[in-house]
Amino acid sequence: MARQYGRGSSRPRIFDRNPRLAPPRTQVNPMLRLNDFATLILLLALALVLGCLTTSAAWAQNSTDEVHVNPRAEPPAVKDQNFVDPSVKTHGKPMKVDVDLVLVPVTITDPMNRLVTGLDKENFSLFEGKEAQSIKTFSSEDAPVSLGVIFDMSGSMSSKIERAREAVVEFFKTANPQDEFFMITFADKPEEIADFTQSVEEIQGKLVYTVPKGRTALLDAIYLGISKMRQAKFSKKALLIISDGGDNHSRYTEGEIKSLAKESDVLIYAIGIYDHYFPTEEERLGPALLTEISELTGGRTFTIDNPNDLADVATKIGIELRNQYVLGYRPKNGTRDGKWRKIKVKLIPPKGLPPLRVYAKTGYYAPTE
Prior knowledge:
Elements: H1 30-65, E1 102-109, E2 124-128, E3 131-133, E4 135-139, E5 146-152, H2 161-173, E6 180-186, E7 190-197, H3 200-208, H4 218-228, E8 237-243, H5 254-264, E9 267-273, H6 281-297, E10 301-304, H7 310-322, E11 325-329, E12 340-347, E13 357-360, E14 363-365
Parallel strand pairs: 5-6, 5-8, 8-9, 9-10
Antiparallel strand pairs: 1-11, 1-13, 2-3, 2-12, 4-11, 6-7, 12-14
Helix pairs in contact: 2-3, 2-7, 4-5, 5-6
């Protein structure tokens, strides 16, 4: 809403120029005029001194009031060529749980890979290591999510690009108004094409102008996506990867990205679009790579061989994100040692249901002192 500014008005001063009302002119002694002039100068000087004192007092009052305002952080006193603003560093410390309550998102599916909803807190048991934990909080409500899409724009995507764009559109249709999104595309290297926004149209518009070319730096793109999540607004964070091949052009290794995924507290989902024939070893290993990374975080990978299935699978992932169970517990082991703590979620299903599968993150890093 635009601000409206009103223009102040003041009444004009009126000077009566009627000669009949003017006072009679009198003769004044020149010496009296000189004394009056000296008096006027003295009065002006006195007024100037009083004005300075008033301004100084007002300034002092303002200075006292400003103590209650938090000052901005000052930049380094001396410019160092190696200085990097911490907000833009990508190689930061691992993200670790730093609260007493550990939250574990859980997805349940049936043998036909269909989502199972309607379960209660009593249907779950939770272990940290070998020790059972008491579930303090339980929720199946749809909470706002910070979402990142990692989109393969390598040359091999040329024949699938239109279906892949449609999949992104369908994925965003499942979003809530409160959600925020960003997008990273990758070929020879990853590139952030859209910062966090709540405008789905903004991301869709930028995706239209991307052109498939180059090789596949998948692992580097995952690294950039997880690093970007440090700026996320919401505690629930998820990445969706859409790719048609294994990595063949990254600086980061598979082991480094798996370690980062374990540390990140970010759900990773993936859609792998693969041909029946894999021309290279990297492409042959692509499905297993995405599956291992996603399941570490509690997400999962959907593998398809028909680009026409992309939109349906993307919609399914979006709905799944909205229908997860979230278990919260306070670890009995309160040691702040920064070590990896394994988590195991077990299901106690109601009678009459077929065997169900549980998807949950495999652990977390304890906080440090």
